[in-house]
Amino acid sequence: MEIDSVFFTDHSGRIASNILLDQLPSYQSLLYQRRSSGNGSKRKNSSRPRLSSSGSGKWAPGTISRQEEKQKTLMEQRPIRELPKTMNEKRQEKAQRLKKNEDLDSWRQWSQNSRRHLRRLWEDYRELRRSLHLWRGDIHQIEGRFGTGILSYFSFLRFLVMLNLVIFLLIFGFVMVPLIVVRSASGNITYNQSDGSICSNYPSSARRGLVIFHQYITDLLSGEGFLEQTYLFYGFYKAQKISFPHVTYNLALAYLLVTIAYLILSLLWIVKRSATGFKRSLVQDEDRFQSFCNKIFTGWDFCIATETAFKQKKSCLLYELRTDLEEERIKQKIQGRTRKEKLRIFSIRFLLNFFAVGFLAACFYSIYLATIFSQTAGRKNIKVNFFVDLIYEYLPSIVITVANFVTPLLFSFIVKFEDYTPAFEIRFTLMRCVFMRLTSIGVLLFSLWSQITDCGENSCECGYNYKLYSCWETRVGQEMYKLTIFDFIIIVAVTLFVEFPRKLMVNYCRCGLAKWWGQQEFSIPDNVLQIVYGQTICWIGAYYCPMLPAICIIKYFFIFYIKKVSLIHNCRPATRPFRASRSTFFFFVVLLIGLSLACVPVIVSVAQIHCSQGCGPFVNYTISWEVVPDTVSKLPDGVRNLLYALSSEAFAVTFFVLTCLAMFYVIALAGAHKRVIK
């Protein structure tokens, strides 16, 4: 008996058992092709019975005939317009179906017609849902002109709009609506009344008397004045309970639970969306030969519809091939390095990284000083003129923006001397920029908290510096509000006053400097870092500024059209290509890092810092988290004991052990599949 060179067989000639191999679509396709080729030729082993590799009879002749019948039934159920046939064949198919239906009884005819109508309704619903997607036409236009790489950025922006919409609906529905409804319904609000202590004093910041017009603009940009004690900020929600005729609504508990809910929802949604990109990145983590084959034979983007995009895609593929060859050359060079050369390279990298760390430390210290100076100027109520006052208000945001602009240029320059591979250069520079952008927010919050918790020579009777910050949560919310507004202003200003003049200079100026400078590149990583930075601010600020998600929705809505117009008229696609699958995974990894960073200040505020006694829903508590055990203690005994058991150490240890076992099983299964695929 011949030994099949493709399939594993045992001594009897049957296909050997391999459960994992059975699950591979390619293996099952080969089985089917082997059967077809065996029936069409006079091979010696063509009469060998088909059995499953697991011995279950899956590929026995009877099973195959049943599968063919099932496949034929599915083809008959498909709409005629979807069949891969000519018009004459479709007409014949329709006549055959009508004739076949005439032979059926009334019950079967009704059943088939019902299934057909339900299938059409489902298809119409899916088409309607696709047509309702935000920016559907604009995204298709971008995809056709610039390919799927740049498309992934705009799809990511749409995802953030939908995420912020859900977050805002949560906050609006469970925190704002009860306060709005109770004023028009037959209910009453139990406010957290002032107990007469110095801690409960929260003076109004509204301007009185004759107010100059530009002061309203200052208030609008800084969140102070007439905006401070509105639905926009934490301090407005000074209500303990909202009583309706048959129910009492605990606003403090709802405020805290909504914060936890939107963080958990964001985590789950990001993990779900990043799973697809993670699978693709694993598949594309191939060896170098397979990488060359994929670029040459499957690297073309068939969504491209313009000649400019065609030329750009061609140059991108050429750049990828050159990059791969350069990486191969560098790898061979690394293997041939002597000990002296390795010592020299490591010394250069150590010195450059030491310089980078020192520069980052200088940037963080500058942010700290700017925050302290801005808070001091606001505390002393220093007023010079409109523009100087705005600079004082936005000084931390200005320093953070300047640092975020300078550091990527510096990192891109020094990484050239560290002798990394081209692919690692990009990743390493991006991670440095991510660290800089996200950590700058943490430094700003640390600077604020150092002022809030520092009572100076006075004793901290309230647990915080009540003389300077009567409602410190609102003050933090105002800083997050200013960061969001200033980030949007910078994006608009760069588009109007940098990218557009640069495009005019390149098109109409014939000097060599303009040609060397060239047109602005639409860098996908830099633009993604910019909106991830803004989204991290939104996650942090939503606790202190509940309306911030709505502001971010409006901000991202305008950013989409600003970036679209800039991409079409001012910029050109980047020379370094960014694949859609890899970029999508990268986007969500960076977003996940931003979410992790955003959780830290919120957790510290809820569980560590003494909450304000003059504003907000947690006036009657030392820290915000105390509302949870206080509410649990008032529940029935059975529910309370269940919650205590779920929060106990025994349950936590058991859950952790089971999670680890499940994780080890999944890792082992993935390793087994990977070995079989190889």
Automatic annotation (TrEMBL):
Listed Basic and acidic residues bias regions: 66-100
Membrane topology: Multi-pass membrane protein
Region (Disordered): 34-100
Record-annotated TMC domain positions: 471-581
Compartment list: Membrane
Entry keywords, A to Z: Membrane, Transmembrane, Transmembrane helix
InterPro entries cross-referenced by the UniProt entry: TMC (IPR038900), TMC_dom (IPR012496)
GO CC annotations, alphabetized: plasma membrane
Molecular function (Gene Ontology), one example: mechanosensitive monoatomic ion channel activity
Composition-biased stretches (Low complexity): 48-58
Membrane-crossing segments per the record: 159-181, 252-271, 350-374, 394-417, 480-500, 585-604, 650-672
Family named by the database record: Belongs to the TMC family.
Name recorded for this polypeptide: Transmembrane channel-like protein
Organism: Nothobranchius kadleci (African annual killifish)
Organism classification: Eukaryota, Metazoa, Chordata, Craniata, Vertebrata
